[in-house]
Amino acid sequence: MSALYVVTSNYSKFNELKSIASKYGVNIEMLDVPKFEIQHDDLEAIASYAALAAALIARKPLIVEDSGLFIESLNGFPGALSSYVYKKIGIAGILKVLEGLSNRRAYFKSVIAYASIDYNIKLFTGVVYGRISEKARGSNGFGFDPIFIPDGDTRTFAEMELEDKNRLSHRGAAFRKFLEWFINSF
Ligand code: IMP
After folding, report:
1. pLDDT for 20-57, tens place per residue?
2. pTM of the entire structure?
3. How many other CB atoms sit within 10 Å of the CB of residue 161?
């Protein structure tokens, strides 16, 4: 099977995907084309347009993954704006906003958009429910990993090895759904 291209410049994200793909015998490669992000509050729309734009430039089948952290007491904020909010206020900013709030429920969602060679888009989603910790803990992973504790665990994602995060995460769930479909389709 030829390589599967992934449009991302995020090495942490790519390494998570690479580790899962290897278990399915699928080789993935980073594709150096721009990830165009439309402004939308729907991850599905953002991932679809980004995959289509990248496929039109690269003329190759590829995937784009778009994800976000949705905090219940903030009506789903930062959601599709997670990357921007992370860069602007980071983990400390989110902890500050949540100070004094007892409801710390949150979920991560991942959408994987596959663009075929004839520009058809297929979507795969994964969600992991959990809560925002009181303090940042751990140094693995990326983004909001140090403050997210998945249900059924006491560790934040940043306190887990890659394997454990992949088993539980939104991205792991979405990517396994994609890979099951992909290896049965090609
Ligand atoms: P994007 O999917 O590249 O647009 O970025 C999504 C943003 O959501 C990242 O920059 C992180 O801030 C956050 N995010 C998404 N998935 C994860 C994750 O698995 N761990 C921690 N933060 C995440």
Report:
1. 999 999 999 999 898 999 999 999 999 999 999 999 99
2. 0.97
3. 11
Which residue reads 């693995």 in tokens? Answer: 140
Q: Which amino acid is at 123?
A: L
Q: What is the CATH number of domain 4-185?
A: 3.90.950.10
- Is ligand 1 within 6 A of the CB of residue 83? yes
Contacts of 7 (CB under 8 A, 6+ apart): 31, 33, 35, 50, 51, 54, 58, 62, 63, 64
Reference 110, options 73, 152, 72, 82; nearest CA is 82
53 Cβ contact list (under 8 Å, min separation 6): 34, 36
| The amino acid at 104 | R
What residue segments make up the domains of the chain, in order of their start? 4-185
Name the residue of 82, 125, 140 to mutate for ligand 1: max ligand atoms within 8 A of Cβ. 82
Please name the residue that has the structure tokens 């969602």. 109
- Atom 3 (ligand 1): residue with closest C-alpha? 66
